[in-house]
Design a protein that fits this description.
With about 325 residues, this protein is an all-alpha fold. About 70% of the residues lie in helices and about 0% in strands. Strands 1-2 form a two-stranded parallel ribbon.
Length: about 325
């Protein structure tokens, strides 16, 4: 028997069982996002007074984790542990993102609405015409509304499926890709702020559309004013270009493409979600294209980083085995 090889396999199995669903690069990105938000908030004298208190949530997650340690360490228990870690990471990252997104808008870079509108026109796309068409078709508008607001479930879905399918590497890839896209979107939207196409039209001309996901114009304008600011309203989606809804609409099915039934269902659902992002979210068409491109780029980069991590880990596992003499 080759005891060196057996030792290597056992050590590898032990390490595999302790792999975190969140990679080190993902954690570093979230910490960086938190630092950006803190620095921007201090530099611009900005405070958000209405952020949710996530302390009970975090304590609850840790409590569940402690309780799970007393349960038999079956595959299901390990999957539950990985899932709750992943959910906690997503919640903390999104909270840091809200602070950073609002604080960075305080630097008030020039609005890009005219450039984005011109880009739509150059592509032969008419936002107002499409919005009025949706407004005149109640069934389409209703489907668009519900698919647009499915984003939270779609963010959690890849984590849920991949964790319980026993795909730790894919889980790490997904969480890293999500964070890369999220952080990049926040930075780009701060450098290229925009109100959205509703700035050019009269909202009273629409009967059904309420533009529930549109950039809150009043909040954006106050963020761009000089002087200290305490935001007492609930923060909303402040990013216009690129669209993060479009990113999720592409990233979620991309991560679950190996699960055929889920993949097909997501393709149908997210075809409507992309359309809804134009109307419910009041986004330019170019916002959608940029968000989709963001998903593909973030996935490609995350997949490469996690792949490199895996190769490094394998090399570290092989080294002790090669150093040990083969005993027979």
């Amino acid at each position: 028997m080759n005891f060196g090889l057996l030792f290597s396999k056992c050590r590898g199995a032990a390490i595999q069982s302790r792999i975190s669903p969140v990679s080190r690069p993902a954690i570093l990105l979230t910490l960086g996002l938190a630092v950006i938000g803190l620095i921007a908030s201090v530099a611009t004298s900005f405070t958000v007074a209405t952020l949710p208190n996530i302390a009970p949530f975090v304590l609850g997650i840790f409590g569940l984790d402690v309780l799970s340690q007393f349960a038999p360490q079956t595959r299901i228990v390990e999957a539950v542990q990985a899932f709750i870690y992943g959910v906690m990471y997503l919640v903390v990252t999104c909270l840091c993102g809200v602070i950073a997104a609002y604080a960075l808008q305080r630097f008030a870079f020039p609005l890009q609405d005219q450039h984005l509108a011109n880009a739509d026109l150059a592509l032969g796309l008419n936002w107002e015409g499409f919005a009025h068409w949706v407004d005149n078709h109640p069934a389409v508008q209703n489907i668009f509304y519900w698919t647009y607001h499915s984003i939270a479930a779609q963010i959690a879905l890849p984590l849920l499926v991949l964790v319980f399918a026993g795909q730790p590497s894919e889980v790490r890839t997904y969480l890293l890709a999500f964070t890369i896209a999220f952080v990049t979107t926040i930075i780009i939207s701060a450098l290229m702020p925009a109100v959205g196409p509703i700035v050019f039209v009269d909202r009273s001309g629409f009967h059904l559309l309420q533009f529930t996901g549109a950039t809150p114009i009043e909040q954006l304008m106050r963020l761009r004013e000089a002087g200290p600011l305490i935001l007492r309203e609930s923060p909303g989606g402040i990013a216009t270009f690129p669209s993060f809804h479009a990113t999720i609409a592409v990233l979620t099915p991309l991560m679950l493409r190996r699960y055929r039934r889920i993949f097909v269902a997501l393709l149908i659902l997210n075809a409507f979600m992309l359309g809804a992002t134009v109307t419910e979210g009041a986004h330019y068409f170019v916002d959608i294209f940029a968000g989709a491109a963001m998903a593909l780029a973030a996935y490609a980069l995350a997949n490469r980083i996690i792949g490199m991590e895996g190769r490094v880990a394998e090399a570290e596992l092989d080294a002790p085995a090669q150093a040990l003499p083969a005993a027979r």
